[in-house]
Write a structure and sequence with these properties.
Helix content: 55-70%
Order of helices and strands: HHHHHHHHHHHH
Radius of gyration: 53 Å
Strand content: under 5%
Number of strands: 0
Number of helices: 12
Shape: elongated
Largest sheet: none
C-alpha cells in the first residue's frame, strides 16, 4: 500500500514537472513584448500634441475689443432703463370681484311658458299662411287674364272662380310666352319637395314657386332658354342652376315614387 502511494506521488510530481516545462516552452514561443508598442504610441501622441499646440500658437490673436465695446454699450443702455412705478391693480381687482359676484347672483327668468305660447302662436299662424298662399296663387292665376279695364269687377271674377273651379288642363297657365311647364300655381297635385335638389334651400324653393316651378318634372324638361329665363328671375342665386346641375338632379328625383307625375297632355 505504501509502495503504491509512493508511485502515485512520483507520477504526480513528474506530471507537474512536465506541465511546467510545456508551459515554459509555450510562453517562450508566444510571448510578445508590448512595452515597445506602448512607448511608440506614447511618442506619437506627444508628437501630435506638440504639433497641435504649435499650430494654435501660430494663429493670430483674436481681437475681442469690438465685442467688449458692444457688450459695454448694451450694459450701459440696460442700466439707463428706468422701469415705471408698479401700478396698483388692487382697486380694479376688487371691482372685478364685485362684478363677478353680481353676475353670479343673476337668475335668468323661466321662459318656458313664453316659449310655449310663441310655439302655439306659430302653429296657429300656419293655416293662415296656407290660406294666404292659396289666395296669392289664385290672384296669380287670374292676373294674366285681367286687363286694366277689368280691375273693377275683380270681386265678381273671384266669386266666379270659387264657384266654378278650373280644370287642371285649363288651370295650366304659362308664366311667360314660349314656356310649356312654368305654372301659375300648383295645379297637378301636391308640390314636390324642391329642397331635395342639392343647392336649393327653403327660401330658394319659395322663390321658385313664385316663378312657377313646383315639380321635379318641370325642371327636368327645361330647355336652355327656360334655364336662362329662370336665372333672370333668381336675382340672388345667379348661376346656381348650371353650377349644381338642377336638370340632371330633377330628372333622377322625378322617377321617385313620392314625386308628382307629369300630367298627361290632352
Amino acid at each position: 500500500m505504501g509502495f503504491l502511494l509512493i508511485k502515485i506521488l512520483f507520477l504526480l510530481g513528474l506530471a507537474a514537472v512536465c506541465g511546467g516545462l510545456v508551459a515554459y516552452w509555450w510562453f517562450r514561443r508566444h510571448y510578445e513584448d508590448v512595452t515597445l508598442d506602448y512607448a511608440r504610441t506614447r511618442e506619437e501622441w506627444q508628437g501630435w500634441r506638440r504639433a497641435f499646440e504649435e499650430r494654435l500658437t501660430a494663429r493670430p490673436a483674436v481681437d475681442l475689443q469690438p465685442v467688449t465695446q458692444q457688450v459695454a454699450a448694451v450694459q450701459a443702455a440696460v442700466a439707463d432703463i428706468r422701469l415705471p412705478e408698479p401700478v396698483n391693480l388692487a382697486p380694479l381687482q376688487v371691482r372685478l370681484d364685485e362684478l363677478a359676484r353680481r353676475v353670479g347672483e343673476l337668475r335668468m327668468p323661466d321662459l318656458s311658458a313664453t316659449d310655449q305660447r310663441l310655439t302655439g302662436i306659430e302653429h296657429a299662424l300656419f293655416p293662415l299662411q296656407s290660406r294666404l298662399d292659396g289666395l296669392e296663387s289664385a290672384v296669380r292665376a287670374l292676373r294674366p287674364q285681367l286687363e286694366v279695364s277689368e280691375v273693377s269687377p275683380l270681386p265678381e271674377r273671384l266669386e266666379t272662380s270659387e264657384a266654378h273651379p278650373q280644370s287642371p288642363a285649363s288651370a295650366q297657365l304659362a308664366v311667360r310666352e314660349g314656356s310649356k311647364n312654368l305654372l301659375s300655381h300648383a295645379v297637378h297635385g301636391r308640390p314636390d319637395d324642391l329642397t331635395q335638389i342639392r343647392g336649393v334651400a327653403k327660401v330658394l324653393e319659395h322663390t321658385l314657386h313664385n316663378v312657377g316651378v313646383f315639380y321635379f318634372w318641370q325642371i327636368a324638361e327645361w330647355s336652355p332658354q327656360d334655364v336662362q329665363y329662370v336665372e333672370s328671375q333668381l336675382d340672388s342665386f345667379q348661376g346656381r342652376i348650371e353650377r349644381d346641375n338642377w336638370v340632371s338632379q330633377a330628372s333622377d328625383l322625378a322617377t321617385q315614387p313620392s314625386a308628382s307625375p307629369r300630367p298627361e297632355e290632352h
